[in-house]
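#onboarding

Welcome to the new folks! Below is a worked example of what a typical request in this channel looks like: someone posts a single protein sequence, and someone else replies with the predicted structure as tokens. Don't worry about understanding the tokens yet, we'll cover that in week two.

Example request:
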Amino acid sequence: MMRNIRALSLGATGLALIFAAEPAVAAPTPVSPDQQATATVRVVKPLTLKWVRDLDLGTVLLSGAGTWTGATVGITKGGVFSCPGSNVTCSGATKTAEYTITGTNNQVVTVSAANVTLTNQNNNAKTLTLTVDAPATVNLGNSGSAGTPLDIGGNISVDSSTTDGTYVGTFAVTVNY
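Example response:
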């Protein structure tokens, strides 16, 4: 029996030496990327759009004799007024519509302004379409709390059959970062 215990003891010692001779497995080394990611956020103030004045094309007198079409009367967003003169005569003070945009300095703002249906105030079945002339974008620059002006123009087309009266419509203008 003693002989078996010695054999077991020697066998156990031999196994212990074999396991001790195995190289230890090292814990994995952490790997870092070749460059770290950057986190960024831009915080901007809310936009405001404040009405300043209405667009006015003045008075248009249909003066051409006979039947005619396509006389375009308008004012550009830059304030340049045009009246063809051959079949119409224009008078009165003209002006662009104006708004003030406030928001975060040096941001570019997109402008959306759809054409306007102008309705004759004496006969609401009669309308004209004001084709809007607005910038696609406005840079707020360093306007601060004073804001940046937004001028909007537009033009109408009249002909010899246009019904007289005052035509009125409202703009649908929006701005967005």
